[in-house]
Specification:
- The chain is of the alpha/beta class.
- 52% of the residues lie in helices and 15% in strands.
- It has a five-stranded mixed sheet with strand order 3-7-5-6-4. Strands 1-2 form a two-stranded antiparallel sheet.
- α8 packs parallel to α10.
- The termini are far apart.
Length: 291
């Protein structure tokens, strides 16, 4: 079976200096225990699966032979997409690697992909340092990343688990995590992270908030408490969107109606004006003021 790998024509069964190209049944391929990436974009998987159904496997995954089966080193996304496409066998590059080499190759290959989340990247650096006893300087040279990049990534692993989960899911960015680390106290970090998520603060806004907290110039607002939950849920259900209610001193407070696009904002305005004649009678000035 002829396949392509980085523009070179290869034949199944062909041998290179340190590898062999063979056609392998998907059921014979096992996962990589050192895979740093734990989440896969389902939409991108479907797109790759459709491409494979039409064009086959353009770039073979890399595997090692283990106990009569083939263990993935790199290419798990390609294997998953091939399964979705109903492909029964794919070409793979079989390399000769021990467990140590398998770990290093898998981690370094994945570090050079753009879709590792900040926690997966930090865990990959940590695993390489643990396995090979690299210093940060040695790791920097090995993976081609600056030492400050590696240092900042590793520091994210000091954050509480809840914040690491938000970083892994995309709710917070590495920049948010770096700003939160300046607070040092885990309890305070979690409170500020909740504030950042609720108010959708940018990295710059988060940095400003943490700076003011450290300087004693601002107190962190308490997150929405149980006393407001019923009101938030009732208003959110009525409007069909997220609503945040915050109480303040002297009976004052704030009601925040969240929307994700101009279309959703217009829907909310129509919904409100349909039931509020006073607003409807002033709809033209109100709408123009929002533009």
């Amino acid at each position: 079976m002829a396949v392509q790998d980085s523009g070179n024509n290869l034949q199944a069964g062909a041998r290179g200096p340190d590898h062999t190209l063979v056609l392998v049944a998907l059921e014979e391929i096992t996962g990589n225990p050192f895979q740093p990436r734990h989440s896969f974009d389902e939409q991108k998987l479907r797109e790759l699966s459709l491409s494979m159904a039409h064009h086959g496997v353009i770039q073979p995954p890399v595997v090692v032979k283990r106990e009569g089966r083939y263990q993935l080193v790199i290419g798990e996304r390609r294997v998953r997409a091939a399964r979705q496409a109903g492909i029964k066998a794919i070409p793979v590059i079989v390399k000769e690697l021990d467990d140590s080499g398998l770990l290093e190759m898998a981690l370094i290959e994945n570090l050079h992909r753009e879709d590792l989340n900040p926690i997966e990247e930090a865990q990959a650096y940590h695993a390489l340092m643990e396995e090979y006893h690299y210093s940060q300087e040695q790791l920097s040279q090995r993976v081609g990343r600056s030492r400050p990049t590696i240092t900042n990534a590793l520091r994210l692993l000091r954050l509480p688990d809840e914040i690491q989960e938000a970083l892994a899911s995309g709710g917070l960015t590495a920049g948010h995590g770096k700003a939160l680390l300046s607070l040092e106290d885990p309890a305070l970090q979690k409170k500020v992270a909740l504030k950042v998520l609720e108010s959708r603060l940018s990295v710059r806004e988060t940095e400003e908030l943490t700076r003011r907290i450290l300087e004693g110039k601002t107190a962190l607002p308490a997150p929405s408490g149980g006393e407001w939950k019923e009101m938030e849920e009732a208003l959110g259900s009525y409007l069909g969107t997220k609503v945040t209610v915050r109480g303040g001193k002297g009976g004052k407070g704030t009601i925040v109606i969240h929307y994700g696009s101009d279309t959703e904002m217009n829907r909310l305005m129509e919904h409100l004006m349909a039931d509020m004649p006073a607003i409807r009678s002033h709809s033209a000035p109100l709408e123009s003021s929002l533009l």
